[in-house]
Amino acid sequence: MVVIYSNENNPSALKLIIAHNFVSAKFDLKLVKPNDSSLQEPRHLPYLELHNGQIIFMPNAAICYIFPVPEKYSSQVNELLEWETTILSPTLAYTIGSSVKNETLRSKLQAALEKLNTKLEKNNYLVGESVTSADISVWCDIFPLYKSPELSKEYFSALPNLTKWVLKLESEPQFKNALESFKIVVGQEAYTALLNGARYPPPTVTNEVQIKEKDSPQHQAEAVTSEELLAAEKAWKKDVSQLPQLKKHNKVVLPVAGEKNIFITSALPYVNNVPHLGNIIGCVLSADVFARFSRLCNYNTLFICGTDEYGTATETKALEEGLTCKEICDKYFKIHSEIYKWFNISFDHFGRTSNPEQTEICQDFFLQLNSNGFMFTQSVDQLHCEKCNRYLADRFVEGGCPNIGCSYEDARGDQCDGCGKLVNAIELKNPRCKVCGSTPELKSSTQFFIDLPKLEPLLRHWMKLSETGWSNNAQVIARAWLKEGLKPRCITRDLKWGVPVPLDGFQNKVFYVWFDAPIGYISISKAYTKDHEKWWKPAKDTQVTLYQFMAKDNVPFHSVLFPSMLLGTNRGYTTVSHIMATEYLNYEDGKFSKSRGIGVFGNDAQSTGIPSDVWRFYLLYIRPESQDSSFSWSDLVTKNNSELLNNLGNFINRALMFAKNNFNKTVPNMVPTSEDYTLLALCTREMKAYVTALEKGKLRDGIRHILSISRHGNQYVQVNQPWVLCKGTEDEKTRAGTVIGICCNLACLIATLLHPYMPDTSSSLQKQLNASTVAITPGNVEIVTLLPPGHKLGDPAPLFAKIEPTTAEEMKKRFAGTQEERKNVNGKEKGSGNNVDVKALEEEVAKQADRVRQLKSSAKEKSVWQPEVAILLDLKKKLEVAQKASAVQNNAKPTGIPNNVEVSGTLKSLQDEVTKQGLVVRKLKEGGVEKSLWQPEVDKLLALKKQLAQVSGEPVSNGQKNKKGKK
User: Fold this and answer.
1) How far is 54 from 40, CA to CA, in rounded Å?
2) What residue segments make up the domains of the chain, in order of their start?
3) CATH numeric code, 214-237+586-794
4) What is the pLDDT of residue 211?
5) Does pLDDT of 529 surpass 70?
6) Is 876 within 8 Å of 845 (Cβ atoms)?
7) Residue 584's closest CA among 802, 277, 220?
8) The whole model's pTM is what?
9) Rounded to an integer, what distance in angstroms lies between the CA atom of residue 773 and that of residue 293?
10) With contact defined as beta carbons under 8 Å apart, do 8 and 31 qualify?
């Protein structure tokens, strides 16, 4: 039997007991003294002793051992457990359990609890849809705090989501049982026991900078060296005019000798379908972020891409839609172009492989490789349809699956959808032509092969020099190919749609798509500029660095096949230095599939009404860099509301609104202190980490450093409380001006750092700041005064809008199944019709109303049921809007709307205005500013609501309460 060793009253012991309860496992509990010399070193309590005598000292590691984390949530749970170990638990231990009081730690604890409250805003659990190790660990930490009446009043009064969660888990049998078997005294005694048992090192800083009682919580016991502090002060005092200016981006970008020339390509998306979100983040969006960052650094940057248009998949799609191959390519090229434009992909040129330059360069490549002895011919058995008079490509033949145990009769010539295994077309049982249905015959055909074994020594030598700049998965995949030894590869097919083979006797053959497609990078460059060879064959005094972005399935073509072709020509072509390959992005609990139409596609994203910047942010936030990740509608909503709205947007908007209302939209005079320089030093760290991450292509990490800067800023504002300082002495008013001035400058910095990720948001913020993008100097990253005192600001406005939690379920239902299944009889998307939405919302309102009634009747405290009431009100408002929109779509105006009112435009625009103004008012009130400052904004909101009521036919409300306290 396993044994739990713990000192009395230690809340961490509950973690191990609850974990055992969840798996119904037996254990023995031994209570010991923290200083008992017989305990296993290093005597951290509690710890777990296994059957074999092995010791697990870390409680979180022990929980995960007992109660394993579901694989799909492992990264999220591990991130939370690390935060609990390093931040939450020691902060609680020292803030509550120690006799030494420190305001910085108290603020740090409050910030940690607020983070949890925000995380639980839309979810019942910290991760996923049931209890995980993260819930157990965090709950045990804060339960003694919540159960102490005095401490609960101090820390939990404004945290309804966290309160609800604590009570919910307390009622679970596994938690109730643990509390009965291991009694703890709540409040300070529990945290003293935690402190004595865990032996946390006290929060320390270096001797150079000591934390003072009133230091802001963004210090969070983080060590800031004197060197960092002095560097921050020196940078802040620099003259902004001395900074390098952002270079103008030329219409035609060419490499320049002596400069850093960055050449970026994105894997060419295949043109036979609409790109889904996995395609977008895997190649074009990732490449775009890196291209925008490179331009911010004043690197000479070229970014090209285009559609891959030849091959059997195009012929198959043309057959399905009754169009010619050219018509199919034209149709989907336009769709791709429009989607990438909506996603703000900043190509210098977006071309296509069916252009004349492709034929010219592809044929030239072949002839040169053939001349150099790297091609040979060989007879290949293929199925031939006499009726169609052509050899059948794999996708044009169907038949019975040849794999043992599978009886699927509609297997394709390349793969069986019945068993999922690969198929050789000539082995199909009872094969039939997909076009005419007749039985094909087996015939031989002579094809060209590229002799990769001859090129292998050259490739191996090149790869040793190049692969150090590749992502890890690219290195692993390329090495696996070489480990098996390269084999000759067929490069021609008996097709009509493709680049013809330029040799007598082979004119009826075309190059296979894998040989043809990578050459598209060169042909698209040539279509962009006649001087394209300056990038592909640079002069000796000019250095060009090639970055190629793709998903991992494209790695073999870019690491082995295309480099072999370039090396085999012996013409000095630029070869890839950095292969930046992602893993796969999955969709909810399954996988994206372009062929089956499963998932969210580029045009779907446009139809949701969610801004493209939010899509960019979320896809980059979950970018599958080191392992597969999953797109989740509920997570998208959560990240928008927590990270963008409550963190980033809140910091920027409250600073700019304060500047508008208190300093006449002008950056005030600033008199920085060591506290301010400490903030700037911490933000400089984040900025340096941001630059390092992006230079290495770690795009997901980069966005987290931006969010950390705004998080530091929010904590800084919260502790300094400029709305209070403004009412004080002249020195306090000056202090308020310093805080707001520094925050405005951090907002300006964020506007630049956001540009690669969220270009529209960046531009909007720059307009509000009346500022322009500044250049980043990677070798000298520092924070300077971008907006000096006296700088006139623009008009502040919310950057982000809240997405209602119900939206996640609505979208999940709307985009369930395949694209074909989403079509109703009228050809409209399932769920896009308002009748469906209205019905679903009516059910949600009824369900939530029942929940509120039950909570109220159970005599629960107001703090428990009030959040549920807020959810009900939001649902009712959403239902009202949906009902009116439904009436408009059905050519009927909502009741009470005058005939001369144009509903479809006016109603929507007024609703948007009311939402925006409501956000302004809410932020002002939350910011604690005095009534004289927020009342004018409230008046404006009421006026907008009055207009909306007139348009929608609702009774006009003056916003005042009657004698009974009701609206």
Assistant:
1) 10
2) 2-198, 214-237+586-794, 261-367+471-582, 894-967
3) 1.10.730.10
4) 27
5) yes
6) yes
7) 277
8) 0.65
9) 12
10) yes
- CB neighbour class for 955 (10 Å; exposed up to 12, middle 13-18, buried from 19): exposed
CATH number for the domain formed by residue range(s) 261-367+471-582: 3.40.50.620
| Residue 598, helix vs strand vs coil | strand
Q: Are strands 629-631 and 429-433 parallel, antiparallel or unpaired?
A: unpaired
**Is 699 within 8 Å of 264 (Cβ atoms)?**
no
Paired sense of beta strands 585-587 and 397-400, if any: unpaired
Q: How far apart are CA 191 and CA 98, in angstroms?
A: 8
The greatest distance separating any two alpha carbons of the chain, rounded to the nearest whole angstrom, comes to: 96
Contact of 887 with 893, CB cutoff 8 Å: yes
The CA-to-CA distance between both ends of the chain, in Å, stands at 63
- Tokens 């680049």 found at: 499
Which tokens belong to 90?
Answer: 């020691």
CA angle 885, 887, 892 (to 5 degrees): 135
> Residue 376 phi/psi, 5° resolution?
-155, 165
| Amino acid occupying residue 761 | T
Task: Please give the single-letter amino acid code of residue 299.
Answer: Y
Amino acid at 828: K
Tokens linked to 665: 């939209």
Q: How far apart are CA 554 and CA 284, in angstroms?
A: 13
Per DSSP, 83 falls in state H
Rounded to a whole number of angstroms, the CA Rg of the chain reads 32
Contact 70, 132 (CB under 8 A): yes
What is the amino acid identity at position 568?
Answer: G
Q: Name the phi and psi angles at 460, rounded to 5.
A: -60, -45
- pLDDT, one tens digit per residue, over 385-415 is 888 888 887 778 899 999 888 888 888 887 7
Quick one: CA torsion of 33, 35, 40, 41, rounded to 10 degrees? 150
Torsion of CA 333, 335, 341, 343, to 10 degrees: -120
Identify the H or E element spanning 413.
none
Do the beta carbons of residue 634 and residue 622 sit within 8 Å?
no
Q: What letter would DSSP give residue 554? A: G
Closest C-alpha to 540, from 513, 511, 574, 568: 574
For β-strands 2-6 and 27-31, DSSP reports them as parallel
- Residue 133 burial (10 A CB sphere; 0-12, 13-18, 19+): buried
* Secondary structure of residue 915 in the 3-state scheme: helix
Continuous H helices in 890-966: 903-926, 931-952
Dist CA 897 CA 887 (whole Å): 11
Return the CATH class of domain 2-198. Answer: mainly alpha
Report phi then psi at 477, rounded to 5: -65, -45
Cβ-based burial of 946 (10 A; exposed 0-12, middle 13-18, buried ≥19): middle
Strands of the sheet with 55-56, listed across from one edge: 27-31, 2-6, 47-49, 55-56
* 40 band by pLDDT with thresholds 50, 70 and 90: low
3-class state of residue 442 by DSSP: strand
Hey, what are 61's tokens? 């590691």
What is the number of other CB atoms lying within 10 angstroms of the CB of residue 26?
7
What tokens were used for 764?
A: 């909007």
SS (H, E, C) 271-326: CCCCCEHHHHHHCHHHHHHHHHHHHHCCCEEEEEEEEECCCHHHHHHHHHHCCCHH
**Torsion from C-alpha of 494, 500, 503, 504, nearest 10 degrees:** 60
- Tokens encoding 347: 């190509």
Tens of pLDDT along 131-172? Answer: 999 999 999 999 999 999 888 888 888 888 999 999 999 999
Strands 590-591 and 585-587: antiparallel
- Euclidean distance between CA atoms 155 and 169, whole angstroms: 19
In tens, the pLDDT along 196-211 reads 886 555 443 222 223 2
User: In sequence order, what are the residues at sequence separation of 6 or more whose Cβ sits closer than 8 angstroms to the Cβ of residue 404?
Assistant: none
Task: Indicate the pairing of strand 349-352 with strand 300-307.
Answer: parallel
Give residue 52's pLDDT.
72
